Amino acid sequence: MELNKNYDPTNIEDKWYDKWMKKGYFHSEPDEREAFTMVIPPPNVTGVLHMGHMLNNTIQDVLVRTARMKGKNACWLPGTDHASIATESKVVNKLKELGIKKSDISRKEFLEYAWDWKEEHGGIILEQLKKLGASCDWERTKFTMDEDLSESVIDTFIDLHKKGLIYRGIRMVNWDPQAITAVSDEEVIHKEVNSKLYYVKYNIAGTNDFLTIATTRPETILGDTAVCVNPKDERYKHLKGKEIIIPLVNRKVPLIYDEYVDMEFGTGALKITPAHDIHDYEIGIKHKLQTINIFNDNGTLNDNAQLFVGIDRFKARKLATAKLEENGNLLKVEDYKNKLGYSERTNAVIEPKLSIQWFVKMDKLAKPALENVMNDSIKFHPAKFKNMYKHWMENVKDWCISRQLWWGHQIPAFYIKNEDKTLGGDDYIIAKSKDEALEIAKEKTGNNNLTINDIRQDEDVLDTWFSSWLWPISTFDGIRNPENKDIKYYYPTNDLVTAPEIIFFWVARMIMAGYEYLGQPPFKNVYFTGIVRDQQRRKMSKSLGNSPSPLKLIKKYGADGVRIGMLLSSPAGNDLLFDEGLCEQGRNFNNKIWNAFRLTQSWTVDESKQQPEHSKLATKYFDSKLNKSISIIEDHYSKYRISDVLMTIYKLFWDDYSSWYLEIIKPPFGEKIDKKTFDEAVQFFEKLLQLLHPFVPFITEELWHHIKKRNENNDIIISKYPESKDFDEELLAKFKHATQVITAIRDFRNNNNIPNKEKIELKIQLKDKSNTEFDGVVKKLCLIETIEYIDDKPDNIQSLVVHSTEYFIPFSDSINIDEEIEKINKDIEYQKGFLNIVMKKLNNDKFVQNAPEKVVEIEKKKKADAEKKIEVLKKKRSSLN
After folding, report:
1. What confidence tier does 421 reach under pLDDT thresholds 50, 70, 90?
2. What are phi and psi of 550, to 5 degrees?
3. Which of 81, 427, 562, 724 is in the most buried spot, having the most CB atoms within 10 Å?
4. CA-CA distance, 554 to 784, in Å (whole number)?
């Protein structure tokens, strides 16, 4: 069958993906083979494929396809995350379009809309991954709110509570006023912003004196309950026992003394707002201050503020500033740079808020998770991320796991209605269901008349990461049934491929859960990808408009082309500067593979023809080169240098196989090739396809079946991955020398205008003839009529040197000696002029003394190079005279 000139993936990709799916190659069940397991970092159910997903999942697919070809029972488990905040936001917006407010419907009704939204949109990203070629075990697809996974989450909460590792309490939390929920420290992004610093006059009660206090948030003055200075500050010692009048509300508050205050910063006096700043909160507890919460959950001011009630905090800031100025309390305003926390999910400015929440104690859980990363029981690739991990784990804070949302796993805490006396107390019941909670309530209170209607469940849901941290365990049902065959066979998983920005959100917590529940790590290796950035080093995002559509790239360049483009320049842990030209390079490489096959298929085989000597040598060489490359590839794989694996195969195919091996064995135009050489070329091509398959699965499967007719299940996806055998380093060195000679002779032809079809003679001055094995190859590729070894340098002949060996080529009739001498003279004059410029710099003492050492060294190298070139040119001119 005649192939198209260029590879067209249009129909090929869907064809082979469908066949792989129908044959069940992606599905895994426990058997006698060694398991190779990966769980996909579950993308948000709200998500669509972006460039980060492309990179991450291509790497995962390379690893799982390689393991599958090595005979392992490969299981790559896919799934999605319910993404509480993101999904709830999507559903709320959908309801708005329908004219419905969330507050106007019940929780049950809202969740019905949410599940409808999930069913309509939730599987989009997984379907898009199939276009990339992801060989996931789709039969095992999981969702973090599947019934079995949800039960595992609730069981874990109950278990940790029994162990005293989950508690409820009033704490200062990061509050997202847009999502109207608490978020963890790790979900806050700190950005430097241009702000204003407002200098405000705080009058001292009973005097005409005042304190000056600088603040970036004048609206929070309404919640001030003290002013604080350092006890060592001489400026304020005389004010001990005085009260301060809070501007705007004229509230008298105490002047307190605490060494927390930096005397050198600003005026050395701080306003204390315990309800709206974590440090102020701690000072408030220490000094038993009143706490006044002035904000509603949505960031508007509440009745406690007394002014600007119902107005958004940022608008209230402007109004407060104007009011302070009107009252004469605003002394001045300065431009100021400071860092603000933003919600990772909504990009809303975080509001510190005093709130009752649920927490996980982390110190006990963190110990084995830290120890086993630092001792390499779990290996990080690259290892540099261990230091970041260590710092975080040694300073770990308790994890706020409650979220004020409806979409998610509702916290299994129950209250007897009208008996929730204290916000921070333990007057709650932890139970798996409302019915179970009722029975516990009856026993706890001695009141058998209680009914289900007397019991209410905590309104909050669990942080999405509280389900994700169980992902490698719960997806194999290891929480509910730690002895089941799947968890015992597939756990611990082998590799996790993820981004370093979720090392704390997810990676650390999965490790904690693994040791807490199964006494083993959840994975053996963690491969951290870099961030995909544009050429200006900006992170790709929709808002910047710098992120191409992955599906459009696949349509334009083919999935294989995009996969190569993503991986060619993506070393572990380092950012990928994406350029669409990388995908074009990937497509060009696919065409190179395609056309290399077309070339061999264009040859006619002569069954009776003997194998030429140059073809024997070429086969010996490429066999060694292939085996050495496989050894290098295995080393790269062991160190998770995936980009280096691809580059090694890329060069092996493009340079060694196509540019050298095929060129050597290619029969002269109109002649046939011997069967032995042809068969060997095809066998090499098959092995190259197998090495390439994990990176470019579609084109390799297509060509695998074009090579010859194969049995029904003899597909490359399950073929045996090539193993390295012995290779001859000395032979490879000799061949490398031969290629340098060939390149030098070709350059000589080009420089001297000797036509490529014109045969030439070659004389070699060489005493040691041990490196002459590839003379036949040199003769064939350089169209040399005869090679002669000589002792003395001949006259009237041109020379070239490769390493320590000098090669001579008699003058061709096509060479005009006078013209050549004139050309050499011009080159010598040019080099002398260049050398003169360099020498002026080096002879200038100021330059040599003041220029950086590296710059001086560069100039010295230029001098040496120019002198060498002049010497070579003079020798060449001498040989022509």
Report:
1. very low
2. -55, -40
3. 562
4. 47
Q: Taking CA 645 as the corner, what is the angle to CA 639 and CA 649, rounded to the nearest 5 degrees? A: 155
Please report, in angstroms and rounded to a whole number, the separation of the first and last CA atoms in the chain. 59
In whole angstroms, how far apart are CA 755 and each of 176, 748, 751, 820?
Answer: 75, 11, 11, 16
Residues 571 and 650: beta-carbon distance below 8 Å? no
Looking at residue 422, what is its pLDDT?
A: 36
Q: Rounded distance, CA 227 to CA 457, Å? A: 41
DSSP state letter for 497: E
State the amino acid at position 773 in one-letter form: E
Structure confidence at residue 881 as a pLDDT band (50, 70, 90) = low
Task: Give residues with Cβ within 8 angstroms of 145, minimum separation 6.
Answer: 82, 408, 409, 467
The first and second tokens of residue 401, run together, are: 């796991």
- Average pLDDT over the chain, rounded to whole? 92
CA 833 from centre of chain: 51
Lowest mean pLDDT among 16-20, 620-624, 824-828: 824-828
Mean pLDDT, residues 277-300 = 95
Sign of CA dihedral 507, 509, 513, 519: positive
* DSSP-derived secondary structure letter, 140: G
Cis, bond preceding 382 (omega within 30 deg of 0) = yes
Dist. CA 389–CA 381, nearest whole Å: 13
Tell me how far the alpha carbon of residue 79 is from its chain's centroid: 19
Alpha helices in 211-340 (DSSP H): 278-286, 313-327
Q: Say how far apart CA 240 and CA 206 lie, in whole Å.
A: 13
Whole-angstrom CA distances from 315 to 193, 303, 320, 322, 346 are 18, 16, 9, 11, 19
If DSSP codes are grouped into helix, strand and coil, which group holds residue 435?
helix
pLDDT digits 0-9 by tens, 91-102: 999 999 999 999
| Amino acid symbol at 726 | D
Alpha-carbon dihedral of residues 836, 839, 844, 847, nearest 10 degrees?
Answer: 110
Other C-beta atoms closer than 10 Å to the C-beta of 790 total 13
- State the DSSP code for 492: S
**CA gap 32, 648 in Å, rounded:** 33
Candidates 802, 797, 837; CA nearest to 820 is: 797
User: Residue 763's pLDDT band (boundaries 50, 70, 90)?
Assistant: confident
Residue for token pair 């001086």 = 856
- Tally Cβ neighbours within 10 Å of residue 146: 16
Instruction: Determine if residue 670 is left, alpha or beta; phi over 0 gives left, psi from -120 to 50 gives alpha, anything else beta.
Output: left
Question: How many residues does this entry show for the chain?
Answer: 881
Closest CA to 610 of 531, 693, 667, 559: 667
Decide if 140 contacts 75 (C-beta within 8 A).
yes
Least confident of 296-310, 384-398, 415-429: 415-429
> Cα–Cα distances in Å, from 111 out to 88, 92, 107, 153?
9, 11, 6, 18
Average the pLDDT over 398-427 and give the result: 80
Report pLDDT for 542.
63
Is the model's pLDDT at 795 over the cut of 80?
no
Q: For the segment 142-169, what is each residue's pLDDT rounded down to a tens digit?
A: 999 999 999 999 999 999 999 999 999 9
How many CA atoms does the CB half-sphere of 19 hold within 13 Å? Answer: 18
Distance CA 373, CA 390 (A): 9
How far, in Å, CA of 472 to CA of 282, rounded?
Answer: 38
As a whole number of angstroms, the distance between CA 121 and CA 109 comes to 19
According to the model, what pLDDT value does residue 749 have?
82
Rounded CA separation 808/444 (Å): 104
d(CA 548, CA 498): 21
